[in-house]
């Protein structure tokens, strides 16, 4: 079915098109000019003619409104847009709200479909009394419900401390949302403040684009100097979205500013979104969601407990270390006495515990915090502990101790009574420093890089210089190199490794998880990756709350630690395109939800705190949510039997700086204009899906044939089997069930065409979004305010009759500005 | 869209009625046209001293002149040499890599060329205006701009045959001096006066667009790399000589084989086909922001990066599509 259109050589248009593209005028026709003033007789030569301009007007509009290529969207994804736009399109915009599908078509009748946004407790003083642009009274909102039939206007907020339901919504009209890359482009709309989101809704009858931002995503709000047009408000988000609003009235701007400051700095966990977020799942489903991942199962998969390793219950009630999980794996030979002794000699009592076990050669990765060695202190139990770890790997006679800090930092710590292991005191260890900088350096580095990303039309050297100056890629490489070193030690040398940094919850988590990812192909699957984060980050007490600023706290504690790990994974994905089951989108969504506080997974700083808060009973699990939508996150190039998916990955370590690239998909994630306009991933997924559908159809037809033959001839099933060889292995299971009744078949048949929007006799027309398709799907797409692909984005933002410049192309826009200035 | 060389206005502002008439003839009634000069205003003004120059507004009232600065050969050649040196640098330091990449200015040139081409395409497509592109001689940056603009505008130029004819039309027939420009490449000891990677820059720009629109081109990266190689050293006569005149004098048509005849055989062609291709009749607007432009690893890091996994991915991609 690939069809002739795709094999270009046979394509009719490709034949003999030399003259067609432009009419070359023969030189002899133009003697005057030739004689004239052009150097080297290069007279003006018509080389390209825009036929649509010269010939027909209608075709011009065509080329105008569709001035962008249309990627082939996976049908499922396009359909899925209906019920729920992906979270990244509108930031906080949740894909879990089932009603959103009808939003575009929602007439006044549907305005009644109230949305339970849920809320935190809002102090009453936040309710502004003044009548004016900034409405806060329910009445003001109700008036608007009529004029703008948006159902979310009748937001019902359940303040957690009040039984009464309050409509709590502030709104400002005539706010302009500026496009970050071109100042000429701005959309006028209304800004709404709810208890959980900031929502900007564009005016305009057809293309009501919405921008939703969760309060917990907002990292800073900046009120800039008032200009003639109004008061600009700059909102920077933790998912790297930057929103620039211009509010006409200074008073309103100040109100919004003050309210947002308060709203984005919650002081109690209960105020966070996940406690009010309700995806309309029942209790059982929620519990099921939390049970999706089981760390015990994961340790069993690794091959522990075994002869060398066992679960220790020494930390049963967080008695030894409150930032560790209750169940920790330690060497069998390490007694409770040794563990407790060792924990007293380690910073924050984070004693050496198992992170990854390689059952092929018994080598392991353990993690801990720095020893409290100072200049000369020793601890017998700690030495015994390391000895026990080494002995748990009988194949090797020494143990690597990797300190992920720069040597200078580690030395400085000695003065504070901390420090690093002395090789003389510990027998058979090899000590190694790997200079990964601390959280403060990383925070500043990201800050610098984001400044570069935020530049308006930077020159190439501005950008590269800024990127270099930020040092970000250098830090990423340092983390990768550490992971590669450890993976190599474990896989190739068969030596166990103990990793620590200062407290063993930032760099250690990064390095251990990168190493695990390289070593074990399971972690490169979707579920495996979730388990990895759950194991190395969540359970071992990575301080999510402090690092990602969920609650108002010390800004110096904030640092993009897990962002860096996620970027490392992306860099690996670029180098090994077939090795990961998930795609870039998955990483971006994980990053988004680490900050969103929509799910309870990443709340608090430790397992202990989460248990005390009863997170699992009161919130939902992100993993279940992602798992449910896993079709969106699949890497089409992944095949479980592919060579890249097997065993250890060996990224090049030495002078491969060029392998590390700037991740614009993450850091410029909301500037869709900067990204490739066509997605190979989506294309391949669509092809795969199509293949599967065809296979299903084939199967159905095969069965039907078999049934017919059975009923008519009543003798053989041979025909049906003849169809088999062309089928995919995965489908053979259901294929065997010849008991399929005709009824089932007809069901299948019904569902099949309904999946392809164009009632496809030709698959191609369904998949290529032609102009017509684009237009017809316009309202839906714009209503869903989807920014996922540049095309839809374009189609909803620039009406076909619109301006004469490609205003959607922001990059060029800025150049246009330059050109005007010339 | 038209191309030409600079007008010979000189210092005293000569004019040529026929030239004005000729280019005005391309305007539709009531429409203005654009003249895109690929030199900066300063350079263009300096050119007047040598008898060259640019169109005076007074004499070409219906045209608006825009200057876009695209560097000329020796600067481009230096840039290439620096870039290749940076790519072969075995130092372990990330900072040095990035600063060397920046110092080479290669990507800056890419950005400039693409910007100018987008501008030309924009004038044609969005405003329906005629565009005249010229630099000094009309054989280097002019060709980059006109050919890229056609790739952006015209889907036919994104097919293999269409691209081949674009190269023939816009580079070979237009008289890009391949012999002078593509003599030594980056490793030459002696500085060749006329050497410049103009064609390579063009191919790189095409690759940048290809990367942003992976499904809109019938050919793949290999096709561009193949053209790059043959432009510098080839067993075919296609890229020999400096212009059509020289080629016909050398009787290349009789004496050598054409590259196209070899490439267009189906067994060769299959190597260059993009499995993702899906005819796209629309104009494709690439992004020229620095974040969107990347180093063309397929050429510059071809020999020092492990390509095994990428090749595997490519095969996997083909097999998925084939299977379908």
Automatic annotation (TrEMBL), chain B:
Q: Which residues cross the membrane?
A: none
Superkingdom of this entry's organism? Eukaryota
Matching entries from Pfam families are given as: Myotub-related
Report domain Myotubularin phosphatase positions: 1-300
Q: Which GO terms describe its cellular component?
A: cytoplasm
GO BP terms in the entry? negative regulation of autophagy; phosphatidylinositol dephosphorylation
Q: Which SUPFAM superfamilies match?
A: (Phosphotyrosine protein) phosphatases II
Q: Where is the signal peptide?
A: none
Q: One MF term in GO for this entry?
A: protein phosphatase binding
Which family is this sequence assigned to? Belongs to the protein-tyrosine phosphatase family. Non-receptor class myotubularin subfamily.
Q: Please give the name of this protein.
A: Myotubularin-related protein 9
Q: Which organism is it from?
A: Colius striatus (Speckled mousebird)
What lineage does the source organism belong to? Eukaryota, Metazoa, Chordata, Craniata, Vertebrata
């Amino acid at each position: 079915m690939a069809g002739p259109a795709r094999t270009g050589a046979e394509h009719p248009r490709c034949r003999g098109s030399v003259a067609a593209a432009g009419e070359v005028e023969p030189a002899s026709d133009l003697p005057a000019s030739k004689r004239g003033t052009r150097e080297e007789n290069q007279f003006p030569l018509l080389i390209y003619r825009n036929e649509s301009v010269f010939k027909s007007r209608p075709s011009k509009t065509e080329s105008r409104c569709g001035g962008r290529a249309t990627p082939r969207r996976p049908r499922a994804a396009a359909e899925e847009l209906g019920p729920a736009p992906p979270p990244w399109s509108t930031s906080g915009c949740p894909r879990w709200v089932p009603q959103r599908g009808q939003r575009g078509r929602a007439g006044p009748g549907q305005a009644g479909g109230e949305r339970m946004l849920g809320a935190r407790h809002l102090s009453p003083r936040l309710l502004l009394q003044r009548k004016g642009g900034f409405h806060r009274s329910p009445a003001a909102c109700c008036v608007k419900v009529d004029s703008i039939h948006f159902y979310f206007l009748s937001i019902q907020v359940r303040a957690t401390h009040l039984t009464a339901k309050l409509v709590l919504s502030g709104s400002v009209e005539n706010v302009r949302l500026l496009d970050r890359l071109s100042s000429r482009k701005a959309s006028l709309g209304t800004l709404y403040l709810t208890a959980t989101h900031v929502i900007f809704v564009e005016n305009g009858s057809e293309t009501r684009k919405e921008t939703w931002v969760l309060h917990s995503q907002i990292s800073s709000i900046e009120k800039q100097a008032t200009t003639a047009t109004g008061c600009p408000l700059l909102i920077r988000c933790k998912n790297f979205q930057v929103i620039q609003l211009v509010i006409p009235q200074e008073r309103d701007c100040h109100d919004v500013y003050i309210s947002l400051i308060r709203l984005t700095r919650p002081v109690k966990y209960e105020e966070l979104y996940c406690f009010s977020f309700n995806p309309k799942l029942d209790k059982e489903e929620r519990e099921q969601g939390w049970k999706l991942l089981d760390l015990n199962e994961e340790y069993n998969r690794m091959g522990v407990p075994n002869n060398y390793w066992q679960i220790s219950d020494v930390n049963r009630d967080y008695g030894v270390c409150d930032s560790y999980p209750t169940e920790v794996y330690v060497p069998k030979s390490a007694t409770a006495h040794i563990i407790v002794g060792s924990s007293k000699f380690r910073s924050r009592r984070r004693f050496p515990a198992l992170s990854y076990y390689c059952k092929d050669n018994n080598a392991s990765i353990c993690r801990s915090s720095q020893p409290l060695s100072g200049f000369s202190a020793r601890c017998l139990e700690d030495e015994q502990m390391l000895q026990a770890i080494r002995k748990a790997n009988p194949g090797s006679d020494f143990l690597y101790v990797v300190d992920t800090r720069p040597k200078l930092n580690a030395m400085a710590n000695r003065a504070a009574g901390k420090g690093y292991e002395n090789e003389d005191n510990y027998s058979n260890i090899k000590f190694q420093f790997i200079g990964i900088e601390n959280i403060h350096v990383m925070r500043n580095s990201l800050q610098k890089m984001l400044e570069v990303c935020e530049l308006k039309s930077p020159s190439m050297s501005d950008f590269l210089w800024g990127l270099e100056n930020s040092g970000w890629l250098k830090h990423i490489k340092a983390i990768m190199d550490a992971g590669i070193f450890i993976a190599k030690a474990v896989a190739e040398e068969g030596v166990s490794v103990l990793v620590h940094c200062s407290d063993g919850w930032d760099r250690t988590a990064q390095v251990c998880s990168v190493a695990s990812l390289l070593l074990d192909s399971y972690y490169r699957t979707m579920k495996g990756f979730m388990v990895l984060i759950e194991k190395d980050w969540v359970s071992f007490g990575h301080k999510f709350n402090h690092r990602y600023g969920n609650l108002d706290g010390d800004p110096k504690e904030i640092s993009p630690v897990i962002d860096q790990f996620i970027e490392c994974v992306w860099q690996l994905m670029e180098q090994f395109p077939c090795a990961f089951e998930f795609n870039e989108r998955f990483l971006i969504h994980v990053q988004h939800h680490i900050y969103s506080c929509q799910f309870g997974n990443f709340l608090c700083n430790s397992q202990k705190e989460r248990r005390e808060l009863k997170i699992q009973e009161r919130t939902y699990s992100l993993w279940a949510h992602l798992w449910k939508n896993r079709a969106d996150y699949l890497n089409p190039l992944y095949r479980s039997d592919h060579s890249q998916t097997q065993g250890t990955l060996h990224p090049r370590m030495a002078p491969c700086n060029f392998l590390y690239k700037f991740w614009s998909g993450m850091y410029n994630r909301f500037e869709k204009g900067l990204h490739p306009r066509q997605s190979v991933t989506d294309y391949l997924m669509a092809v795969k899906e199509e293949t599967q559908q065809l296979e299903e159809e084939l199967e159905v037809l095969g069965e039907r044939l078999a049934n017919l033959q059975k009923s008519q001839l009543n003798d053989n099933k041979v025909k049906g089997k003849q169809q088999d060889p062309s089928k995919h292995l995965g489908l053979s299971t259901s294929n065997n069930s010849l008991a399929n009744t005709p009824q089932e078949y007809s069901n299948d048949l019904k569902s099949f065409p309904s999946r392809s929007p164009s009632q496809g006799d030709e698959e191609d027309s369904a998949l290529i979004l032609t102009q017509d398709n684009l237009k017809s799907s316009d309202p839906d797409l714009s209503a869903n305010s989807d920014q996922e692909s540049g095309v839809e984005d374009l189609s909803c933002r620039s009406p076909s009759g619109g301006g004469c410049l490609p205003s959607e192309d922001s990059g060029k826009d800025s150049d246009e500005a330059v050109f005007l200035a010339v | 869209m038209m191309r030409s060389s600079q007008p010979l206005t000189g210092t005293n502002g000569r004019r040529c009625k026929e030239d004005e008439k000729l280019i005005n003839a391309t305007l539709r009634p009531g429409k203005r046209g654009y003249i895109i000069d690929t030199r900066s205003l300063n350079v263009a003004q300096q050119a007047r001293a040598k008898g060259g120059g640019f169109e005076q507004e007074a004499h070409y009232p219906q045209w608006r002149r825009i200057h876009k600065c695209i560097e000329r050969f020796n600067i481009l050649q230096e840039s290439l040499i620096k870039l290749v040196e940076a790519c072969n640098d075995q130092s372990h330091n990330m900072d040095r890599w990035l600063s060397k990449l920046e110092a080479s200015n290669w990507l800056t040139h890419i950005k400039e060329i693409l910007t100018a081409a987008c501008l030309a395409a924009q004038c044609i497509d969005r405003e329906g205006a005629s565009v005249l592109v010229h630099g000094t001689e009309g054989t280097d940056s002019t060709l980059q701009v006109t050919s890229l603009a056609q790739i952006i505008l015209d889907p036919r130029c994104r097919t293999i045959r269409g691209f081949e004819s674009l190269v023939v039309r816009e580079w070979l027939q237009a008289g890009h001096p391949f012999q002078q420009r593509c003599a030594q490449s980056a490793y030459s000891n002696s500085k060749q006066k006329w050497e410049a990677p103009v064609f390579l820059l063009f191919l790189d720009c095409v690759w940048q667009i290809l990367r942003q629109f992976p499904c809109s081109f019938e050919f793949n990266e290999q096709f561009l790399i193949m053209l790059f190689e043959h432009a510098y050293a080839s067993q075919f006569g296609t890229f020999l000589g400096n212009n059509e005149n020289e080629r016909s004098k050398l009787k290349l048509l009789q004496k050598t084989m054409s590259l196209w005849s070899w490439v267009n055989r189906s067994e060769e062609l299959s190597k260059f086909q993009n499995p993702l291709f899906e005819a796209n009749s629309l104009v494709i607007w690439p992004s020229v922001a620095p974040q969107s432009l990347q180093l063309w690893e397929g050429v510059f890091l071809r020999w020092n990066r492990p390509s095994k996994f990428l090749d595997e991915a490519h095969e996997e991609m083909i097999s998925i599509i084939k299977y379908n």
